[in-house]
Write a structure and sequence with these properties.
By secondary structure, this protein is α+β, with helices and mostly antiparallel strands. It has one domain: Glutaredoxin (3-Layer(aba) Sandwich), CATH 3.40.30. It contains five helices and six strands. The chain has a four-stranded mixed beta sheet, sandwiched between helices. Helix 2 links the parallel strand 3 and strand 4. The chain is globular and about 35 Å long.
Length: 170
């Protein structure tokens, strides 16, 4: 893959966790990482349940899901970090990490999302984030897959991207 080193570099891009602390994905280099821009008031919010099911099913096999709240699409994530974390935990039982709120499009887009949008496989997969719950699968062997917001986390194509790259698959 021509962009393999650039995709590998995504793991070193810093962002803030829900406590405001700087972090990156470097410790997850040997795992499949599913990155999703999330929003509590979105009609696609039931995907939280599917994401959590995936985390529980495949987390010990090398999958890590990470949510990035974003309020850019019709103001569907207006709450504070405390409100977002409470909503995710109480409503959907989310245990995977939810990071600090970010922007995914425009000149103030988070560096992580700028790189994700530029490097996803297939030319049709590049460009602005279209809506909440757009998914990126980053694999240990430096592939980056992108899936539309309406593509469910447990759809066959997302599952194939995840399970075919799990380091500890049974």
């Amino acid at each position: 893959m021509e962009n393999a080193s650039q995709i590998a570099d995504i793991r070193n891009i810093t962002f803030r966790n829900s406590k405001g602390e700087e972090t990156d994905l470097s410790a997850l280099a040997d795992q499949v990482v599913l990155i999703v821009n999330v929003a509590s008031k979105c009609g696609l919010a039931p995907q939280y349940e599917q994401l959590e099911d995936l985390q529980k099913t495949y987390g010990d096999k090398g999958l890590q899901i990470i949510g990035f709240p974003c309020n850019q699409f019709l103001g569907q994530e207006p709450g504070s970090m405390e409100e977002i974390l409470e909503y995710c935990s109480v409503t959907w039982g989310v245990t995977f990490p939810i990071m600090d709120k970010i922007r995914v499009n425009g000149s103030h887009a988070a560096p992580m999302y700028k790189a994700l949008k530029d490097l996803a496989e297939g030319p049709a997969m590049r460009g602005p984030i279209k809506w909440n719950f757009e998914k990126f699968v980053l694999t240990p062997d430096d592939h980056l897959y992108r899936f539309a917001p309406t593509t469910k986390p447990d759809s066959p194509e997302v599952m194939e991207a995840i399970t075919s790259h799990l380091p500890l698959a049974a």
